[in-house]
Design a protein that fits this description.
33% of the residues lie in helices and 21% in strands. It is built from 8 helices and 9 strands. Strands 1, 2, 3, 4, 5, 6, 7, 8 and 9 form a 9-stranded mixed beta sheet that branches. Strand 3 and strand 4 (88-95) form a beta hairpin. The longest helix has 22 residues, at 190-211. Residues 231-258 and 266-274 have low confidence and may be disordered.
Length: 274
């Protein structure tokens, strides 16, 4: 018997591109409860109104009253930002602390998100990982990802994009053929479980430093900024409320918004082969 299966029975799975006030409040509470409140107030909240975000949510609901502030509790969330050229920038599935080992719930959220991207004909989905971080590279390679044509830098490290078509990842992780019920009860064989665990736990480990507000040590950056759109000589398409345009001599600004990720990026050092 899977320890998490009874709790998973009461969790609702859904995907949305529009977030109402009740869900925004639930997301803010989720981030605060798990000790990364800035992720909502400094990153997600500005993006929700101005950027094409796809959220795969796992929520539980109070019995009564069924509507209103506090009616939802976010148990897990997967996020994809649709950026330039229709590419999806992914953030690893975030779970409540009580679901830290609930790999079935993580698999179900991942499946919902990738299937939605596939149905929307998104050509590729990717993560931005620190160059030379072989543990992350290998975990992504086993899940169907490959090094793409985009590189960027922060003040502290070089980052590479690893991307794949959503359907390729679904196949590599066996999520395409598994039903949600099988995932939530963890009715997987050993190889499927090993692959899903390696994928998720490597991504979470890579994101931990960022969630602790230590971008200096981040092995993986969340997909919450359209880095392709910040490159020189391209139209700046970041859907954020305040933009700082590059000065002609490059002496001030980065061409990206006031954002915990963007503040450390040096778009001029990144490149994308066209």
């Amino acid at each position: 018997m899977n320890y998490h299966a009874p709790a998973n029975e009461s969790i609702r799975m859904w995907v949305t591109r529009g977030v109402d006030l009740e869900t925004r409040t639930a997301l803010a509470t989720f981030c605060r409860r798990n000790r990364f409140p800035y992720l909502y107030f400094e990153v997600l909240e500005p993006l929700l109104s101005h950027t094409d975000l796809v959220l795969a949510l796992a929520t539980s609901e109070r019995p009564w009253p069924p509507k209103g502030i506090g009616s939802q509790t976010v148990e897990a969330v997967g996020i994809a930002m649709i950026g330039s050229e229709g590419r999806a920038h992914l953030t690893p599935v975030l779970t409540d602390r009580r679901h830290a080992t609930n790999i079935g719930l993580v698999g179900a959220v991942t499946k919902q998100l990738l299937e939605n991207l596939h149905d929307a004909k998104v050509p590729s989905a990717g993560y931005l990982i620190r160059q030379g971080d072989r543990a992350l590279e290998r975990a992504l390679e086993q899940a169907g990802f490959a090094e793409a044509d985009f590189q960027s830098s922060t003040d502290f490290a070089e980052y590479l994009e690893y991307s794949a078509a959503p359907e390729k990842v679904l196949d590599a992780l066996s999520l395409g053929r598994l039903r949600l019920g099988d995932l939530l009860t963890l009715a997987l064989d050993g190889r499927e479980l090993d692959r899903l665990c390696a994928y998720h736990f490597a991504l979470v480990a890579g994101l931990t430093a960022y969630l602790q507000d230590s971008i200096r040590y981040a092995a993986l950056l969340p997909g919450l900024i359209d880095l392709v759109a910040t490159l020189p000589l391209r139209a700046c398409r970041l859907a954020l409320p305040v933009l700082r345009q590059n000065e002609p001599n490059g002496s001030s600004g980065t061409g990206v918004a006031d954002n915990p990720i963007a503040d450390h990026f040096e778009p001029g050092r990144g490149h994308r082969s066209i």
